[in-house]
Specification:
Rossmann fold, about 15% strand, 10 strands, alpha/beta, about 300 residues, eight-stranded mixed beta sheet
């Protein structure tokens, strides 16, 4: 197999595993903390390009347990002007908090969705310091419980995850029981199969990464348990997470499903580069109806099934 030549901007990914091996000398607890720090890279401050919160967004703080002193996660609720619009639950990836995701959230609203988005503990205005895999799964479920009260119609609820958030979205969708409808569909973009497989792709295949990592993010197994339509999106030009990871996820997912590979799309821009194709995929897989592809919006309401 031809070796992938990663640009200098990805050197940090190699540092992750240098840190992991260095951590072996100081004990397992230190190793796990370093791994979590370098996996999530949580940021408190606003993104440099952030121009302020859009006026229509409502800020929320959700306690993660019923305890009086429970930590809280910070969330944004951005409803569409049409109360019948479907709602997408936005789960972001590593490093940037909600302030770094305004443009992608705006694009989802342009597609016709209301958007509900959270920051995991340790990110932005949420409480806590350092996330873990178990913690972000818990936070995602807390946000979901709020959303199902806001939008009780499962046919109008969608789950979206970008990059590492794709793994969080898959875990949430896979956790639902088989008897009830919980959401109309799952959308994952620029994500991966497992954290260990991604780490091997970014460093060297011979490294025993799977033996070292405590954070697994095993989406390729979990997606087999997802019982709702799945849209998998990836930019062909993604040099951070190769598109072959999404192809493997798509292969593992149950029907109905759709794979959208966006030509010239990178890790972050497929929603704009592939705008028309993205809208077409939403219409075809989820039965969304409305304006023709290429117009201002695609959909207002999903068809009942």
């Amino acid at each position: 197999m031809k070796r992938i030549l990663w640009p200098k901007s990805l050197a940090l990914r190699v540092v992750i595993f240098a840190g992991l091996f260095a951590g072996l000398a100081t004990g397992c607890a230190s190793l796990e903390q370093k791994e979590r720090e370098l996996t999530f890279r949580p940021v408190r401050e606003a993104a440099g390009w952030y121009g302020g919160i859009p006026p229509a967004i409502q800020e929320l703080y959700l306690p993660v347990t019923a305890a009086p002193d429970a930590p809280r996660i910070h969330a944004w609720w951005w409803p569409d002007s049409d109360p019948k619009a479907p709602v997408v639950y936005y789960l972001h990836g590593a490093r940037w908090n909600l302030t770094g995701h305004v443009r992608r959230i705006e694009q989802l609203r342009r597609f016709g969705f209301s958007v509900f988005a959270i920051d995991y503990r340790g990110f932005g205005k949420s409480d806590g310091e350092l996330p873990s895999e178990a913690m972000v799964y818990e936070d995602a479920k807390v946000g979901w419980e709020w959303l199902i009260k806001r939008q009780p119609d499962a046919q109008r609820r969608f789950i979206y995850g970008h990059s590492l958030g794709g793994a969080v979205a898959v875990d949430l969708a896979a956790s639902f029981d088989n008897e009830k409808g919980h959401a109309r569909g799952l959308i994952v973009e620029s994500t991966f199969t497992t954290l260990a497989e991604l780490a091997s792709a970014l460093t060297y295949p011979w490294l025993p990464v799977s033996l070292l990592l405590s954070q697994k993010f095993d989406s390729v197994e979990k997606i087999k348990e997802v019982r709702m339509p799945v849209l998998v999106v990836h930019g062909v030009g993604d040099r951070l997470v190769p598109s072959r990871f999404s192809e493997a996820l798509f292969k593992a997912a149950r029907e109905p499903k759709k794979l959208l590979l966006v030509e010239n799309g990178s890790h972050n821009n497929s929603m704009w580069i592939g705008d028309d194709d993205y809208q077409q995929a939403l219409a075809e897989l989820f039965g969304l109806t409305g304006a023709p592809v290429g117009d201002a919006k695609v959909t207002r309401a999903p068809k009942k099934s």
